[in-house]
Amino acid sequence: MSMLEAAGVHVRFGDRVVLESVDLAVAEGEFHGVMGPNGAGKTTFFNVLTGRVKPSRGKIRLGGEDVTGLSPHRIANKGIARSFQIMTLFDEFSARDNVMMGLPEFRARGLDIARAAAGDRRFAEQASDALAAVGLADKGDVRAKDLSYGDRRALEIAVALAQAPRVLCLDEPTSGLGSDGVQRLATLVARLKGKLTIVAIEHDMEFLFSLADRISVIHWGQVVARGTPHELQQNEWVRRSNLGKFA
Ligand SMILES: Nc1ncnc2c1ncn2[C@@H]1O[C@H](COP(=O)(O)OP(=O)(O)OP(=O)(O)O)[C@@H](O)[C@H]1O
């Protein structure tokens, strides 16, 4: 059984069809890349997976359970975490507090002060684990706004990891990073690979081809090619487009 499955997903905005019959099956522990030209429908597909857009047809299943059309909040609670292309951190808060605020139990406790006091240490420990997982172990007390761009991107991933997701969706994780930052992210993803199911939209083909187990190419709202990086190198469509130029 696939950890994450999309079956026959259609999305239309007015009379514009943006996704047409998109299928995807991602195995547990797989790192699946999604690539394609600008405007192809990749972000819309992520929005369907994470509940921000309801498909006009088709199903999304997580671990076999139908989660189609659930709210983003409920889908997150079921285990699909998303790291956004646009920074979504609380700048004035420390890295650790940002991660703690991503913990479902932390948010669920509301303003119950007695429980909060008892829970704080445990939450802080969970947050520290997530920070360590992304190489920010010694930056827990640094305010988000004082972190470097690369550290902020790593922190976004820590926020998503702290939710102990079953599936992590990364929307252009390398965007805005210099080559050192990309290298560091590649090391992090390589460490997470196999332990976590990851789906990543990415324009950096070198990054994707070196790390992904399989890649789906979306163009005009449809999957036009899919396979391992090696298989895609042989794919006629990818060869003719300039998408595989790093392959
Ligand atoms: N809410 C919306 N209403 C109408 N059209 C939309 C909406 N969201 C996206 N679109 C259109 O759907 C198409 C696909 O957009 P989408 O953002 O999914 O593409 P993408 O592959 O992620 O592109 P990029 O790589 O540039 O981020 C675009 O033409 C976009 O203008």
UniProtKB/TrEMBL annotation:
<keyword id="KW-0547">Nucleotide-binding</keyword>
<dbReference type="InterPro" id="IPR051120">
    <property type="entry name" value="ABC_AA/LPS_Transport"/>
</dbReference>
<dbReference type="InterPro" id="IPR017871">
    <property type="entry name" value="ABC_transporter-like_CS"/>
</dbReference>
<dbReference type="GO" id="GO:0016887">
    <property type="term" value="F:ATP hydrolysis activity"/>
</dbReference>
<feature type="domain" description="ABC transporter">
    <location>
        <begin position="4"/>
        <end position="245"/>
    </location>
</feature>
<dbReference type="InterPro" id="IPR027417">
    <property type="entry name" value="P-loop_NTPase"/>
</dbReference>
<dbReference type="Pfam" id="PF00005">
    <property type="entry name" value="ABC_tran"/>
</dbReference>
<comment type="similarity">
    <text>Belongs to the ABC transporter superfamily.</text>
</comment>
<dbReference type="GO" id="GO:0005524">
    <property type="term" value="F:ATP binding"/>
</dbReference>
<keyword id="KW-0813">Transport</keyword>
<dbReference type="InterPro" id="IPR003439">
    <property type="entry name" value="ABC_transporter-like_ATP-bd"/>
</dbReference>
<dbReference type="InterPro" id="IPR003593">
    <property type="entry name" value="AAA+_ATPase"/>
</dbReference>
<dbReference type="GO" id="GO:0005886">
    <property type="term" value="C:plasma membrane"/>
</dbReference>
<protein>
    <submittedName>
        <fullName>ABC transporter ATP-binding protein</fullName>
    </submittedName>
</protein>
<keyword id="KW-0067">ATP-binding</keyword>
<comment type="function">
    <text>Involved in beta-(1--&gt;2)glucan export. Transmembrane domains (TMD) form a pore in the inner membrane and the ATP-binding domain (NBD) is responsible for energy generation.</text>
</comment>
